[in-house]
Amino acid sequence: FSQASVDPHHFNQATLLETPPGLDPSRLASALDTLLARHDAWRSRYTYNAAQGWQWAPSTPTHFPFEIIA
To answer: Tens digit of pLDDT for each residue in 8-61?
Structure first.
């Protein structure tokens, strides 16, 4: 947060997984949703205002963004 970013309102961390043949995508999606539900850090969101600086903003997403790229 101490770095002066050009777009401080947007930060994204993408991950590409290479999976073995035959992996059931719905089971992987379900496992990722379970991780999202159980780990606060994966749900972390932050807002900024000049008076208070960066503040943690509780978030409760229920679905992990998941896309299959063939």
So the answer is: 666 667 788 888 999 998 998 899 889 888 887 777 788 888 888 888 887 777
Phi-psi region at 19: left, alpha or beta (left = phi > 0; alpha = psi -120 to 50):
beta
Q: What is the pLDDT of residue 24?
A: 92
Question: Rounded distance, CA 14 to CA 19, Å?
Answer: 16
CB 36 within 8 A of CB 51: no
Listing DSSP states for 1-69 in one string gives: --S--SSTT-----------TT--HHHHHHHHHHHHHH-GGGG--EEEETTTEEEE------S------
Question: Could you tell me the pTM of the whole model?
Answer: 0.60
d(CA 27, CA 12): 24
